[in-house]
Amino acid sequence: MSKTTDFGFRKVAEDEKAGKVAAVFASVASRYDLMNDLMSAGLHRLWKRFTVEQSMTRPGERVLDVAGGTGDLSQLFARRVGPRGSVVITDINGPMLKRGRDRLLDDGLILPIVQCDAEKLPFPDEHFDCVCVAFGLRNMTHKDAAIAEMHRVLRPGGRLLVLEFSRIWQPLAPLYDAYSFQVLPRLGKLITNDADSYRYLAESIRMHPDQETLKKMMQDAGLERVEYFNLAAGVVALHRGIRY
User: Fold this and answer.
1) Cα distance between residue 188 and residue 89, in whole Å
2) What b-and-e string marks burial along 102-126, b requiring 16 or more CB atoms within 10 Å of the CB?
């Protein structure tokens, strides 16, 4: 009997999840950035800038942007590491990478782009100074395996940053649930003609590990000095750990 995993609130076979997630993002790729702006009232841009600031990256360093999608974090990292540094953007989803490539080219940036599974990164051990995954970990079938891979490709002293939806401050939970399950699907239908993908988004957030659980997962993978920053009352959390 095949193993199952979460796909939102549903259970699916482990070998089916990646395809289902790919279909979600292929459906919304062309309007992904617009929806992010609308869903977060533009706050996602501030969260990503905060992530880059907390990355401690310096000119000349190597950065890996996992599940980099449409490239907005890669764009920020490229400016930070400068021409002597390098930024590689990966994603499992082709349409998202195509969107990211076009956006980066429009900004005058030519960055290496790799379509791959985050659980099997095609890079050597101890290669990057910083690895970042933003709003992608919750979609991965084996989160522990993905974190272990990100740890593997970090050099000693390298930093892993995970920006992800998390657990909101409890008194705000009823309001947040109403927004997530009533407003988001309607907005998705209006903007992308796809309510189901944004219903999955709301469900996947609830199934994702909370702040303390993710912290322990990073520690179990070998990362040290793991800490997290709650943003927007815990709607989003940034976790940071260091490989020694």
Assistant:
1) 26
2) ebbeeeebebebeeebbbebebeee
Distance CA 173, CA 89 (A): 34
Amino acid letter, 193: N
Q: Three-state secondary structure along 223-244? A: CEEEEEEEEHHHCEEEEEEECC
CB-based contacts of 138, cutoff 8 Å, min separation 6: 164, 165, 204, 205, 207, 208
Residue-wise pLDDT for 155-182, tens only, equals 999 999 999 999 999 999 999 999 999 9
pLDDT for residue 92: 93
* 165: nearest Cα among 136, 131, 198: 136
pTM, two decimal places: 0.93
Mean residue pLDDT of the chain comes to 93
